[in-house]
Amino acid sequence: MTILALAVDPVAVDVHVSDIMLQVTLEDGRELSVPVQWFPRLRDATTSERGNWRFIGRGEGIHWPDIDEDISVEGLLAGRGHLLAPKGLGT
Predict the structure, then answer these.
(1) What are phi and psi of 19, to 5 degrees?
(2) With b meaning 16 or more CB within 10 Å and e meaning fewer, what string describes 55-77?
(3) Is residue 17 classed as helix, strand or coil in its secondary structure?
(4) Residue 59 near residue 81 (C-beta atoms within 8 A)
(5) If pLDDT is split at 50, 70 and 90, which confidence band does 91 have?
(6) Bridge partner residues of 54 (DSSP)
(7) How is residue 85 annotated by DSSP?
């Protein structure tokens, strides 16, 4: 079985959060969509709080200061969400 190794770390260039989905656009053109339900703080946040985000690093992650939420692009690509992780672990 061959495993594809990425030559560069995935980097986010845009983020949109609705009541249903977290959508992240990557620098290489990929678009990720995951249920906002995976991230309870984000799910329960107001529209204003969801819209107040900034990139972590060069776009390796996203931070929402109003709700103290951090989500890594790597974690999204791996399908990790707070509700899917073992107790005590997050993305």
Answers:
(1) -70, -15
(2) beeebebbebeebebebbbebbe
(3) strand
(4) no
(5) very low
(6) 63
(7) S
Residue 6 CA: distances (Å) to CA of 12, 21, 28, 75, 77: 15, 26, 11, 14, 12
Tens digit of each residue's pLDDT (9 = 90 or more) over 25-79: 999 999 999 999 999 999 999 999 999 999 999 999 999 999 999 999 999 999 8
Ordered structural domains, the chain, with CATH = 12-77 (3.30.2020.40)
pTM for the structure as a whole: 0.81
Task: Return d(Cα 71, Cα 52) in angstroms, integer.
Answer: 14
Two structure tokens written together for 36: 């906002």
Q: Looking at residue 76, what is its pLDDT?
A: 95
